[in-house]
């Protein structure tokens, strides 16, 4: 028998439709676990306090570097700088996220940093609430996966605005079937902050009945934001992020850079690492051009694979919300592992869509298994950056330990890509 709503007969956690307990349940006292809304609030507060405490106790202060850079850039802008030269590596709408906080902080960079973190916490809390409501409020898989994912990746989650497009991506997966126009709008909004969500549009177009609504939402939002960007920043500023991305070199954390970075452990002088004009640590030396070309070739092959997956999904008589979720993850992972750039915050891109998929496929052991591997990848990412990053960049004596962590993380990302692609292939097959 089942006790009161939200409890199993044993009182060990939120009840599931199948009578089981969420595998993602945080190990908290029974009185906290057993409740509904209040329990989620307590779990969120405790897990986020843990996340921020890592910043102090694990000396991860380096993660704040990007927010300080945003603050310095905005200070220069308000001191008479040019909009064309302000944060030109990011799409112009990003300033819409940052300037209000800078003004609210009275142009003080320390106040801006605090307000930025608070705003990311607010985004996180809102997404947690959406997941809880979408998850049936008591099943718990999706909500608890997200509650685990943020501490796994660490304080970095709150010191990058990548959390916003990650949450928008998760929201798009959640509403794709029931509100396709909103899914299109959320995708366009995410692409206006980080370019990668634009690649997700074909995923939401595979359902024939939803295409007009998705395109209406995407194009309407996209044209409005693009027109605003052109009016404010001009053509060169609007397209500067594209130039910035294509001109970058081989970043040290990229999957394609892993063999060279491993070789660097034995001869760091032969493969120097330095901060490029694109504000990323890139490797140079023998073989870098070849591996850069290999990355470009893999990007093309990855694109062809995506076209194949989209076509199979398009031809399948019934593309479910689960299929859309897996296809979304496969797309995000293929884009990540084939790219010559890979920053630690890119792992945030996976958290939102995985949590959304857990809503659409409740209790699915494949989703649970995938989620666990993703959590491990997030933990390895936090260990690699910021904990071991200086040792990797400066080729310190302890570098082999952290390079092993980085290599394992990249291998795991390739494995996750394979799992996602295999699942899409299975779901779009003739017997599915």
Mean pLDDT: 88
H-E order: HHHHHHHHHHHEEHHHHHH
- Which consecutive residue ranges, at least 5 long each, have pLDDT under 50? 1-21, 28-35
Q: How far apart lie the N and C ends?
A: 35 Å
**Biggest beta-sheet profile:** 2 strands, antiparallel
Q: Enumerate the strands of the largest sheet in spatial order, edge to edge or round the barrel.
A: 1-2
Strand content: under 5%
Jot down its keywords.
65% helix, globular, two-stranded antiparallel sheet
What does this protein look like?
The protein is mostly helical and about 425 residues long. The chain has 17 helices and 2 strands. A hairpin with a 5-residue loop joins strand 1 and strand 2. The protein has one domain (about 30-425). It is globular. It has helices spanning about 30-35, 35-55, 65-80, 95-105, 110-135, 140-155, 165-175, 180-195, 200-205, 210-245, 260-265, 290-315, 320-340, 350-360, 365-385, 390-395, 400-425; strands at about 275, 280-285. Strands 1-2 form a two-stranded antiparallel ribbon. Residues about 1-20 and about 30-35 have low confidence and may be disordered.
